[in-house]
UniProtKB/TrEMBL annotation:
The lineage of its organism: Bacteria, Bacillati, Bacillota, Clostridia, Lachnospirales. CDD domains: NAT_SF. Pfam families: Acetyltransf_7. InterPro entries: Acetyltransferase_Butenolide, Acyl_CoA_acyltransferase, GNAT_dom. GO terms for molecular function: acyltransferase activity, transferring groups other than amino-acyl groups. This is GNAT family N-acetyltransferase. Residues 4-145 form the N-acetyltransferase domain. SUPFAM superfamilies: Acyl-CoA N-acyltransferases (Nat). It comes from Fusibacillus kribbianus.
Amino acid sequence: MSELELRENVIDVDTYLKLRASVGWKKLTRKQAQAALDGSLFTVGLYIADQPVGMGRLVGDGAVICYIQDLIVHPNAQHLGVGHMLIERLIEYVDSLTEDGTEMMLDLMCAKGREEFYSQHGFLARPTDKLGPGMIQYLDKRKKE
C-alpha cells in the first residue's frame, strides 16, 4: 500500500457518513453524525493516497471505560490490514490514558462473524463464566408508516 497515513481527530461528517454507507450501516442525519463525532473521545482515520479507507472512533470517560464505537473499513480496502492498524491505534490510545496502577475497560459490540478479528486483538467474547452477555436497547423515534 502506498502513501498510507493515519490521521487523528480529523474525521469530518462527510467522510464519516460515506464510510458508514460503504459498509451498509444505518443511515444517520448530518446532525446525528456531527454530534457523534463531537462527542468522541478519539477518532483515527486511515488514508491511502489521500483517500479515506477506514476509521475508528472511541467514546467513554477516558478514565474507567472506553468503547470502540465504530471500526469501519471500506470494502475496497478490506483484507489489507487496515482494520488491524486502526484497532491497534485505538488500543494504544486507550493504553496511553490508563493511569499507572489502574485498569481501564475497553469494550465493543462487534457484528456477528467478526468475533475472531477482535479476539486476535485481545478481546474476550461474552458471555463468560464471570461476565454476562452484552445487551442493547433501541429507542426508535422514526415515523411509522
